[in-house]
Amino acid sequence: MSTPLLGPVLLALWQHGPLPEHELLVLLPDATSAQVTPALTTLIEEGLIESCPDRHGTLYGPAVLCDETIAQQAYARYTGSPRCSGCGCTDTWPCPDGCWWVTPDRCSSCAGRGLVA
Questions:
Q1: Residue 56: which pLDDT band, with cuts at 50, 70 and 90?
Q2: Residue 55 structural domain
Q3: Residue 16, CA distances (Å) to 8, 19, 97, 104 in order
């Protein structure tokens, strides 16, 4: 988990995947293949993304058995972003229907619910 690109790669693949690595690099213009490849390997090992052979190469995308909340919590952990204590969303990766901060650690989607994360 030493690569700083774990968070950006995870977010890009969950929002835009499945993608081949060369398209992922377009979304992360400051990254190189030498930086992205280890991030992909780590994210696959952690069960957050999957790879699939395609006629154009390998595609990377969200893991089918991974809940988005788990991926959001991992993103917050990788990036150090403040996250909602209810669902794990962040400013960069909000709830699917959108949300805003009601308190410093609670989003509008979770404001009336009990803690789950």
A1: confident
A2: 6-62
A3: 12, 7, 17, 28
What pTM, to 2 d.p., does this model score? 0.84
Residue pair 95/113 in contact by the 8 Å Cβ criterion:
no
d(CA 1, CA 61): 19
Task: Tell me if 117 is assigned to some domain.
Answer: no
Structurally, the chain folds into a number of domains equal to: 2
Reading the block at residue 71, the tokens are 């991926």
Residues listed for the chain:
117
Rounded distance between C-alpha atoms, residue 34 and residue 113, angstroms: 42
* Interval 66-89: pLDDT, tens: 888 899 999 999 999 999 998 899
